[in-house]
Amino acid sequence: MDSLRHHFLIAMPHLQGDIFTGSLTYICEHNEEGALGLIINKPLPVKLSEILLELDVYPSVESETMPVLAGGPVSTNQGFILHNDPDFISNSLRTGPGTFLTTSKDMLVSLAEHRGPNKFLVTLGYAGWDAGQLEDELSNNVWLTCPAHSDILFDLDLEQRLSAATRTLGIDPEQLSSETGHA
C-alpha cells in the first residue's frame, strides 16, 4: 500500500449529501490501520475567538475573524490545529514537509498570545477511515488524489482551495463529471 499521507483528497462531484460534498481533505496519516484527514475548505459558523473564550483563553483581535473549519464527521467537539512551525514539534505530529498537526491547548494559548505559528488552520472534528476503507473509496472513484501543497493549505482563501488542488492535476474543475465509471 502506498501512503497518501501529505496528499489531498478531492471529492468527486457525484459525492453528494454529506460533509464531504465539494470538499478538499488533507491526509495527515495513512497506514495499514486506516487514515486520518482534515477537511480544509468548509467553514463552520464559529470563529476562533469563540473557541478560545470557551477554553478560558483571552482571544486576540485577529481571532475574531479567523474561521474554524469542519474537519470531518468524527469527534466534532475536538479541535485540531494544522500548522507550519517546527518549534512546536514536541506536541505535534509531522504530517509532511513543514506541516504538523496538534490537538494541544497550549498551541491555542500560543496563537492567542501571538507566539504561535505564522501559518495555521483550526478544525473541529476529523475524517477517519478504517483499514482498507479509503482504498475501497478510491477504487470506486469517490476521490481524486494529489500531493499536498502548503500554499493551498495555508495561503489560499477557503473557496479557492478545491479548484487549486484540482488544477495541480491539470484538470479544470468545471470539467469533472458527476458520472462514475471505470476505464
Automatic annotation (TrEMBL):
It comes from the Bacteria. Transmembrane segments: none annotated. It holds the Pfam family DUF179. SUPFAM superfamilies: VC0467-like. PANTHER family: UNCHARACTERIZED PROTEIN YQGE, UPF0301 PROTEIN YQGE. NCBIfam families: PRK00228.1-1. HAMAP family: UPF0301. Belongs to the UPF0301 (AlgH) family. This is UPF0301 protein ACFOEK_13325. It comes from Litoribrevibacter euphylliae.
